[in-house]
Design brief:
Number of domains of chain A: 2
Strand order of the largest sheet of chain A: 5-6-7-3-8-9
Distance between the termini of chain B: 41 Å
Number of helices of chain A: 8
Number of domains of chain B: 2
CATH architecture of the largest domain in chain B: Orthogonal Bundle
Structural class of chain A: alpha/beta
CATH superfamily of the largest domain in chain B: MetI-like
CATH topology of the largest domain in chain A: Rossmann fold
Largest interface: A-B, 29 and 24 residues
Helix content of chain B: over 70%
Shape of chain B: globular
CATH topology of the largest domain in chain B: MetI-like fold
Number of helices of chain B: 12
Structural class of chain B: mainly alpha
CATH superfamily of the largest domain in chain A: P-loop containing nucleotide triphosphate hydrolases
Largest sheet of chain B: none
Radius of gyration of chain A: 19 Å
Radius of gyration of chain B: 30 Å
Strand content of chain A: 15-25%
Strand content of chain B: under 5%
Number of strands of chain B: 0
Oligomer: heterodimer
Order of helices and strands of chain A: HEEEHEEHHHEHEHEEH
Distance between the termini of chain A: 44 Å
Shape of chain A: globular
CATH architecture of the largest domain in chain A: 3-Layer(aba) Sandwich
Number of strands of chain A: 9
Chain lengths: ~270, ~325
């Protein structure tokens, strides 16, 4: 781990300043209403935000704040009632709280799936899958079936599968919420490293404020019912961060206080 | 950190200084470290996930309860015979019936009859499979069709297939076609319903994941929905087979075709000739065939699908 540090700082130095990078994702006054008439629920209310290429943005909010709705809109699984969603560089990849691996396929076949959908040839597929599994340290488990893996391993396969899509934008919907704290810390580090190596843009949804502060360049706070952008925090704590560190804890407390305050007024 | 431990590392340093057998000391120092590195990772042991051993002992442990149950059934049968509840020529004991089974097997009668019956079963089931899957797929794809035909399908499925025979005989006379028609009508609704139900049970999350990765339209069906629905569909296939087999037996008893000595014909003739031994022997044939197909064909399919997906449930 310590050997990776100089390497990472070099990578960090080569990343251009945030303001100089192009916009990877933009929401312009996006609203989403579920249902019609009196039963209609406004899941998202005129949400506007933009994420720059290579940025790691965490979205935090209580349940019912429209986090998942937002990701569905960005992933193109749903269309907004009003406003526009602009995604640069094609279809984004999406990771869920559950791994959503296909139980009838082996680990390597799961990772190969998006490549197969893109029409990538067999030999190139094989090579790419091997690289991806090595990235998440699961090369020894290529022939295994998802049910043979632990929760953390499944999420690493899901991450490899998401990376296989070669999307420039990775959406993550509470991907580590079901894991134990140790595994989560470990995957935070792995994800951070992968993000730094690949230059991906990440939009990470979580209800865990500390996790958001641990990972994000920026943390967006969403209010509940209707989902609205409430506050935005720039996180300048140097990486790699530790979830136990005092800076992370202090910032997380500040954000949590703001969340509680909003909940009281709601 | 390891340097603070006593033992191997200290010895290693000593060896390094003296240059004495570096290969051996290397293996010694790496011993405990390697053990840590190769500690069992969850899911790293294939044997854990293949509970069915291929050894003889494994085979025997699965076989003896079945043999014991058969033995018990035969014992009860023998007791009923011995009680003198019915005379021997109406209810013979298992010994006589098994002897008869053996001679009929040697004479080839059973093989001929089973071949005729199985040919009908496979043909009827094959047609039912194609029809059932086609209907199921159409109903899954076209919502209006499902609303319109859903209850009709349930009605067909719950209708005892024997009730079709009078109509089938009117339409096709006493012919192969009459039997086949009823077998297909018995099995196809179950297969179609099984397919529909299995589609309904596909986890929406998997469909979402497939769509995110670019599976659309028919590709979504081929790569996600069909494989995800397979375990449920297999249940429908199995039920369809049970219905087909029952319809076929009913058909062979009702629609006697003289030149084709099927199992049903044999049963019927045994009754007409008051040949109780023969009748019971043929009933055993029907049962054994049913068990064999259920266990060998569907059981094997089910086990392999469930093992791959970790759906072992109670067997785990």
């Amino acid at each position: 781990m310590s050997a990776a540090l100089p390497n990472l700082s070099k990578l960090l130095a080569s990343v251009p300043a945030p303001a100089a990078r192009p916009v990877a994702l933009r929401l312009d006054g996006v609203s989403k209403r579920h249902g019609v008439g009196q039963d209609a629920v406004i899941a998202l209310d005129t949400m506007s935000l933009s994420v720059r290429a290579g940025e790691f943005v965490c979205i935090v909010g209580a349940s019912g704040c429209g986090k998942s709705t937002m990701l569905n809109l960005v992933a193109g699984l749903d269309t907004p009632t009003a406003g526009q969603v602009h995604v640069e560089g094609g279809r984004p990849a999406l990771m869920f709280q559950e791994s959503a691996l296909f139980p009838w396929l082996t680990v390597e076949e799961n990772v190969a799936f998006p490549l197969q959908m893109q029409g990538v040839g067999r030999s190139e597929r094989k090579q790419r899958v091997a690289e991806l599994l090595a990235m998440v340290h699961l090369e020894k488990f290529a022939r295994r079936r998802p049910h043979e893996l632990s929760g953390g391993m499944k999420q690493r396969v899901a991450l490899a599968r998401a990376l296989a899509q070669r999307a420039s934008l990775l959406l993550m919907d509470e991907p580590f919420a079901a894991l134990d704290a140790m595994m989560r810390d470990h995957l935070h580090l792995e994800l951070e490293q992968l993000w730094q190596q690949t230059g991906l843009t990440v939009v990470f949804v979580t209800h865990n404020v500390r996790e958001a502060v641990r990972l994000g360049d920026r943390v967006l706070l969403l209010s509940s019912r209707p989902g609205r952008l409430m506050a935005e925090y720039q996180i300048d704590i140097p990486r790699p961060r530790r979830i136990e560190s005092t800076e992370v804890a202090r910032t997380a407390r500040e954000i949590t206080d703001r969340l509680h305050e909003a909940a009281r007024h709601a | 950190m390891p340097e603070t431990l006593a033992g191997p590392p200290a010895r290693a340093r000593l060896h390094a200084v003296t240059g004495d057998e570096p290969a051996e000391d290397d293996s010694q120092t790496r011993g405990p470290l390697r053990a840590v590195a190769e500690a069992p990772v969850p899911g790293d042991n294939p044997e854990l996930y293949a509970p069915e051993g291929s050894s003889l002992a494994g085979l025997w442990s699965g076989l003896w309860p079945k043999l014991a149950a058969i033995g018990l059934a035969f014992a009860i049968w023998e007791l009923v015979v011995l009680s003198g509840w019915r005379p021997d020529y109406v209810l013979p004991g298992p010994g006589a019936v098994l002897m008869r089974l053996w001679t009929d097997l040697l004479s080839g009668d059973i093989i001929v009859a089973a071949a005729i019956t199985m040919k009908r079963a496979l043909l009827g089931y094959g047609i039912a499979l194609v029809a059932g899957v086609t209907i199921g797929l159409l109903m899954a794809r076209v919502r209006v069709l499902r609303t319109a035909a859903g209850s009709l399908l349930t009605g067909l499925q719950t209708m005892p297939s024997v009730a079709w025979f009078p109509l089938a005989i009117l339409l096709f006379q006493l012919s192969e076609a009459a039997i086949l028609a009823v077998v297909v009508l018995g099995a196809a609704p179950s297969i179609a319903t099984g397919l529909l139900n299995s589609f309904d049970q596909v986890p929406p999350l998997l469909v979402r994941a497939g769509r995110v990765m670019g599976a659309r339209g028919l590709g979504l069906y081929r790569h996600i929905i069909l494989p995800a629905a397979l375990p449920g569909f297999l249940t429908g296939l199995k039920q369809g087979w049970a219905f087909a087999w029952r319809s076929l037996m009913a058909g062979e008893l009702l629609v006697i075709i003289g030149h084709a000595p099927s199992i049903g014909v044999r049963l019927q003739f045994s009754r007409e000739l008051s040949d109780a031994e023969g009748l019971l022997a043929w009933m055993i044939v029907v049962m054994v065939l049913g068990v064999l197909i259920d266990g060998l064909v569907f059981g094997t399919l089910e086990r392999s699908i469930h093992r791959r997906r970790g759906l072992t449930g109670l067997h785990a």
